[in-house]
Amino acid sequence: MLYWLTDYSDMWGFLNIFRYITFRAGGAFFTALIFGFMFGKPLINLLKRRQKNGQPIREDGPESHILDKAGTPTMGGVLILGAVLVATLLWARWDNPYVWMVVLVTLGFGLIGFADDYSKVSQNNTKGVSGKTRLALGIIIALAAGWWVQLHHPGALAGQLALPIFKDVLVNLGWFYLPFAVVVIVGAANSVNITDGLDGLAIMPVMIAAGTLGAIAYAVGRVDFTDYLGLHYVPGTGEILIFTAGLIGGGLGFLWYNAPPAAVFMGDTGSLALGGALGAIAVAIKHEIVLAIVGGLFVVETLSVIIQVLYFKRTGKRVFLMAPIHHHFEKRGWSEPQIVIRFWIISLVLALVGLATLKIR
Question: What per-residue confidence (pLDDT) applies to 53?
Fold first, then answer.
């Protein structure tokens, strides 16, 4: 919205600064951060009043969770979504199709998560909305997003899968690109959801991944950068940096209250929304495979669940002491802060590996 101030830059030259994506991204970051600090405590107090018993805790989870996390309110993802939405609407260009696609995917998955959280809290159990319903709604949102980017990608890139490291290599998926986009977006949403099991565990890797994808989006949206790095040019994606900057600012504001011991959980409201956002960004900037590298922690968490389930059904035995894998390390005696910080480090390393793919061509 503030970009419109550039219409008056002929009269007031200093308003020309609003043309620069990097300046507006900085504004989005601080807007979201301030939003988080301003509304975090009031939101937590409201959630505590509305949720007498807090988020229901799984009885088959680690024993310490039943004692330590009981009574903690959920739906804290509303704080992140509010911060991101306000920051993006204030600082991004409203005529950019990629920004709207990412925003609507984020809100769509956020609504699915909100319905699931509300069902759990109101019924005081861990069932929530059925998995089939959540999956079906997620597929519909992801299909719409995939169709939308197909319309707005340059003709030479529509329906194509770009491979990292290999310069100018594209794999034509044709109409199979739509189901592929669904797998990326829905898979990312559910992977972050699975990872969100300890205080602060999911939000920092999400911010790291968002920052990495935001930097790539900025590079992919500039023809001089794409020429130098040998990337595929997708005009307009640079504006996504503003969304990711807002996500990082809102995430930090939330982490202030979610750091161990958490005063609030993001719930499915936050985890599904943020995961969906990462998937949507990757699809928009043609870096779906790089997302699997940058978000490698989420991939490992998801694989640990799949492996555990399949192996148990086949043999009746378990590969891990408990899945997802962060619970396995809890069972092995790692403290919660140890697991969280070490997983943060892993996420940062994977992000650097993902960024390295831009230069290795």
Answer: 78
* The pLDDT of residue 165: 85
Distance CA 114, CA 117 (A): 5
Q: Which tokens is 270 given?
A: 């936050």
How confident is the chain (361 residues) per 10-residue block, as mean pLDDT?
79 88 97 97 94 72 60 93 98 97 98 96 87 96 96 93 86 94 98 95 97 98 93 96 98 94 94 98 97 97 96 94 94 94 98 92 70
**b/e for 128-146, b at 16 or more Cβ within 10 A?**
bbeeeebeebbeebbbbbb
- pLDDT at position 288 is 97
- How would you write the chain as a 3-class SS string? CHHHHHHHCCCCHHHHHHHCHHHHHHHHHHHHHHHHHHHHHHHHHHHHHHCCCCCCCCCCCCHHHHHHCCCCCCCCHHHHHHHHHHHHHHHCCCCCHHHHHHHHHHHHHHHHHHHHHHHHHHHCCCCCCCHHHHHHHHHHHHHHHHHHHHHHCCCCCCCEEECCCCCCCEEECHHHHHHHHHHHHHHHHHHHHHHCCCCCCCHHHHHHHHHHHHHHHHHHCCHHHHHHHCCCCCCCHHHHHHHHHHHHHHHHHHHHHHCCCCCCCCHHHHHHHHHHHHHHHHHHCCCHHHHHHHCHHHHHHHHHHHHHHHHHHHHCCCCCCCCCHHHHHHHCCCCHHHHHHHHHHHHHHHHHHHHHHHHCC
